Amino acid sequence: MKLEQQVCSLELAKQLKELGFKQDSLFWWQDCGDGTVELMYGKTDSNFGIPVQYYYPAYTVAELGEMLPLGYASWRNRKDFMCQDHLEELEIRAETEVDARAKMLIYLKW
Question: Which pLDDT band holds residue 53 (cuts at 50, 70, 90)?
Fold first, then answer.
């Protein structure tokens, strides 16, 4: 499995940042300002001469699991992944488990 599939997508990372979630992750999406985006380990202020415009935390499934309130679980379904509350009143699906958890956090924050 590629590393990009083990961290939340750039789009969800941007939403989590806008909603004020902690900006502490092992991995970061780096928008270089020239149309390229890179997945980085740790946070750095240099990119070999390419100006860095924005950093977005690329949370792992474990990091998002720690951020979810108690009573929320995620698992693989036949076609996708699901994150659900313990009362089974709320269900969110995504292509990866990490994105399902990210979408749940975004929903709960709204």
Answer: low
State the pLDDT at residue 97: 95
Cα separation, 101 vs 61, in Å, equals: 7
- Token look-up 């956090």 returns 105
Q: How far is CA 3 from CA 60, 100, 102, 106, 108, in A?
A: 10, 16, 16, 22, 26
Residue 107 has pLDDT above 80, yes or no: yes
Q: Which amino acid is at 5?
A: Q
Give the span between the Cα atoms of 98 and 73, in whole angstroms. Answer: 12
- Domain limits, the chain: 3-109
Q: Please say whether the beta carbons of 86 and 73 come within 8 A.
A: yes
Nearest residue to 100 via CA among 109, 87, 91: 91
Half-sphere exposure of 22 (CA within 13 A, CB side): 9
